């Protein structure tokens, strides 16, 4: 256990030394200010690190992760990150990224009680019920899981479009919102949806008056 723990510290020292070898001022410049162009809302799954799968470097992506990449209107953590990223960091893109084979999606499709996370997964169960005919027409569980992964990404992009901070930025054309799904079996990202098309599908009751 200690050996695996120390591996992380040793890895950090090696990485830091490599960066300084490339650029002696790397950390000094990095510590000055962050100006990320992207807000990443992704799954907590350890196999989907956004900087690694996109080839990004520290400082490029502002990150929020939770189980199954959810945008829930009562989640103050997510809403705080969202507002800070859009209003203060002025990110140009929000990327909502799910991944095929998502454990949160799989767990939402069974009847096992896991604990506190059940309250979180209920949001995905609601999406399942909403799309039950399409999902249960698929022949295998893997296909149902992966299709629900895709549908969930679309629904979460819609939830982003129901927030005032995103609506204002879209109206001002200072922000683009994208829905992606990452495939772990081939390592590739698949574009699913863009907010420019999604905002028109949001019911008017969710659209705020913008001064």
UniProtKB/TrEMBL annotation:
Q: Which SMART domains match?
A: Pro_CA
Arranged from A to Z, the UniProt key words for this protein are:
Lyase, Metal-binding, Zinc
GO BP of this protein: carbon utilization
What Enzyme Commission number(s) apply to this enzyme? Answer: 4.2.1.1
Reported cofactor(s): Zn(2+)
Q: Enumerate the catalysed reactions.
A: hydrogencarbonate + H(+) = CO2 + H2O
Gene3D superfamilies reported in the protein's UniProt record: Carbonic anhydrase
Could you tell me which InterPro entries the record lists for this protein?
A: Carbonic_anhydrase, Carbonic_anhydrase_CS, Carbonic_anhydrase_sf
Which positions bind Zn(2+)? 43, 45, 99, 102
One Pfam family here: Pro_CA
The molecular function GO annotations come to: carbonate dehydratase activity; zinc ion binding
The cofactor binding remark recorded in the entry reads: Binds 1 zinc ion per subunit.
PANTHER family, sorted:
CARBONIC ANHYDRASE
Q: Write out the similarity annotation.
A: Belongs to the beta-class carbonic anhydrase family.
Its job: Reversible hydration of carbon dioxide.
- What is the protein name for this chain? Carbonic anhydrase
Species annotation: Sporocytophaga myxococcoides
């Amino acid at each position: 256990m200690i050996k695996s723990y120390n591996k992380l510290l040793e890895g950090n020292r090696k990485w830091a030394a490599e960066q300084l070898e490339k650029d002696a001022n790397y950390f000094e410049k990095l510590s000055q200010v962050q100006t990320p162009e992207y807000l990443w809302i992704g799954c907590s799954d350890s196999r989907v690190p956004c900087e690694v799968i996109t080839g990004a470097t520290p400082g490029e992506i502002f990150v929020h992760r939770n189980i199954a990449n959810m945008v829930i209107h009562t989640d103050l953590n997510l809403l705080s990150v969202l507002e800070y990223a859009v209003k203060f960091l002025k990110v140009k893109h929000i990327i909502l990224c799910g991944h095929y084979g998502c454990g949160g999606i799989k767990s939402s499709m069974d009847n096992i009680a896991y604990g506190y996370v059940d309250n979180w997964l209920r949001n995905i169960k609601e999406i399942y019920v909403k799309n039950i005919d399409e999902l249960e027409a698929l022949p295998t569980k893997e296909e149902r899981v992966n299709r629900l992964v895709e549908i969930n990404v679309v629904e979460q992009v819609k939830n982003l479009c129901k927030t005032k901070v995103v609506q204002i930025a879209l109206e001002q054309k200072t922000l683009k919102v994208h829905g992606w799904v990452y495939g772990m079996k081939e390592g590739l990202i698949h574009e699913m949806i863009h907010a420019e098309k999604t905002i028109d599908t949001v019911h008017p009751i969710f659209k705020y008056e913008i001064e």
